[in-house]
Amino acid sequence: MEAFKRVKANGGKAGVDKITIAQVESNKRKYLYPLWNRMSSGSYFPKSVRQSFIPKAGGKERPLGIPTVTDRVAQQVIATELENDIDSLFSPNSFGYRPNKSAHDAIQQCRINCMKYSWVIDLDMKGFFDNIDHELLMKGLRHYTDKKHILMYCERWLKAPVQLKDGTIKQNQGKGTPQGGVISPILANIFLDIVFDKWIEKHYPDVVFERYADDIVVHCTHIKQALRLLDAIKQRLKDCKLELNREKSKIVYCRRHQKKQPPFKVHYQKFDFLGFTFKPRITMMHGKLKLGFTPAISQKNIARITDEIFERKIHRWVHFSLSKIAELLNSQIRGWINYYSKFRKSEMRKLFRFLNMRLVKWVRNKYRKFRRRHWYNAYKYLKGIAQSYSNMFVHWQHGFAP
Q: For 81, phi and psi rounded to 5 degrees?
């Protein structure tokens, strides 16, 4: 029941059996009692995983594997037990999908280390979740736990076939763990803890890093160390049947001094990590303006969110009042602010200026008197509303009013 509550809180669509979370909730005895009974006796076998696709930057698509709701509940049971047993064994530099650790913690540690170290290796793995070798993963899992039911069910989930979009069933090929499965993040953490975290801590104890799932940033004191370490990491991943994405993996110079520069041309002076761009920026330090190397919302995410706002066609919602539009948008705006305003909040001004201009267009479409007049009249009208009702939109409350 506790596992079902967590699955319900995370939401998600139905799997191959087309049974939704609402249907399971309406008749828990019908769906959850047999699951508990089968898991207790060892006779539980998962259904096929439904394949779906979500859009990525650059027009590409990322495959997602969506297990059935009852399979997600079963995975949550094992994931919770496994997490309680082994989470304390993970590296303190691993932040992804762990209790009491967040993406903000990883970014904060990365920010501090960028101010201490001059070079960064920004690592990106090629199709990590699709290429995890099952044999190596199960070997790593046995290193952490000897509980037979955990090993048995994890192996069954890894071997579960995939139902493609056209309805055909694709049998498992001995690699990959579906993104969308509840158990996948903790299995990925186990795999990378052995493949990367423990390896680098053993062979390069002076090197510091941050890892959030398969997003890794490694800090070095000089370029020679970074070049040698990058070659060693490539070889280590190759030995573990993984591959670096050569286009996205790079060595970055963390320029944090106005005059100090290396005696050669630097190719990269910024990198993206968890939706934030780290680059040289003027910051206030000890009451003085200095050049620092700090994070802020990335231009890629600003572009993604503005495209999302544009596609919603807010300016055509003339059948709604402004307060109703605020009600429809505020939860999403609050999510953007809660995540991206943690570091250098002022960089979100461009994003909310765009949103305010969509609302100005709504004013011109809603009220006839503004249609033939200059757009600035509609802007002044919206500005007056923002001054009178400053709490209407969440971003107005945070100083991004028109």
A: -65, -45
CA separation for the pair 1, 7 (Å, rounded): 10
Q: What is the DSSP letter of 125?
A: B
86 φψ region: left (φ > 0), alpha (ψ -120 to 50), beta (else):
alpha
Length of the chain: 402
- Residue 58 — pLDDT band, cuts 50, 70, 90? low
CA distance 166 to 147: 38
Q: What is the DSSP letter of 178?
A: -
Smallest CA-to-CA distance from 300 within 337, 330, 274 is with 274
Bridge partners of residue 296, in order along the sequence: 277
**Cα–Cα distance for residue pair 256/395, rounded to 1 Å:** 31
CB atoms within 10 A of CB 107: 22
- pLDDT (0 to 100) of residue 268: 87
Question: What is the mean predicted confidence (pLDDT) over 176-202?
Answer: 90
Query: For residue 211, which of 201, 228, 196 has the smallest C-alpha distance?
Result: 196
State yes or no: pLDDT of 99 exceeds 60.
yes
Classify 326 as helix, strand or coil: helix
Average pLDDT, the chain: 91
Beta-carbon contacts of residue 196 (< 8 Å; ≥ 6 apart)? 211, 216, 233, 236
Q: Beta-strand (E) ranges in 250-331? A: 250-253, 271-273, 276-285, 288-297
pLDDT at 243 over 70: yes
pLDDT of residue 259 exceeding 60: no
If DSSP states are collapsed to H, E and C, what string results for 78-117?
HHHHHHHHHHHHCCCCECCCCCCCCHHHHHHHHHHHHHHC
Specify whether the CB–CB gap between 120 and 251 falls below 8 A.
Answer: yes
pTM: 0.88
> Distance between the two ends of the chain, CA-based, in angstroms?
47
Separation of alpha carbons 52 and 67, rounded Å: 11
Confidence of residue 200 (pLDDT cuts 50, 70, 90): very high
CA torsion through residues 290, 293, 294, 300, sign: positive
